[in-house]
Write a structure and sequence with these properties.
It is built from 6 helices and no strands. The chain is mostly helical and 113 residues long. The protein has a single domain, classed as Hydrophobic Seed Protein. The longest helix is centred in the middle third of the chain and has 18 residues. The N and C termini lie far apart (33 Å). About 7% of the residues have low confidence. Keywords: Disulfide bond, Lipid-binding, Signal, Transport. InterPro entries: Bifun_inhib/LTP/seed_sf, Bifunc_inhib/LTP/seed_store, Plant_nsLTP. Belongs to the plant LTP family. This is Non-specific lipid-transfer protein.
């Protein structure tokens, strides 16, 4: 858990130069997904309600503009690279939270589309 916390702090430092004109920034995406890390890394079997709420917030905010969607995607890509989620949990987050997440939680996603 200390490694996950340290990774999040590193991510926040890396994204401190986010585009402030966007309604959504990487700090917000990271904060929204932080409650999901225990599920995404396999520490718990089911995402908690506050994880799903954060995921819903990302979906809602990312849907406001293509810029927000690309920014959220790139931030999640970086976060996935650092945290290394279990692929099956990353895929199943949408189903467990009953949302349609607009992109994969993966370090290999192409955010240009």
């Amino acid at each position: 858990m200390k490694t996950v916390a340290a990774s999040l702090m590193l991510l926040l430092l890396l994204v401190s130069s986010s585009d402030y004109e966007a309604m959504l920034d990487c700090k917000a995406v990271t904060a929204y997904l932080t409650p999901c890390l225990t599920y995404l890394t396999g520490m718990v079997e089911t995402p908690r309600a506050f994880c799903c709420k954060g995921a819903r917030n990302i979906v809602f905010d990312a849907s406001k503009s293509m810029e927000n969607k690309k920014m959220a995607c790139n931030c999640i890509k970086t976060l996935a690279y650092i945290v290394k989620p279990r692929p099956e949990n990353a895929i199943d987050l949408s189903n467990k939270c009953r949302i349609h997440f607009p992109f994969k939680i993966s370090p290999n996603i192409d955010c240009s589309r």
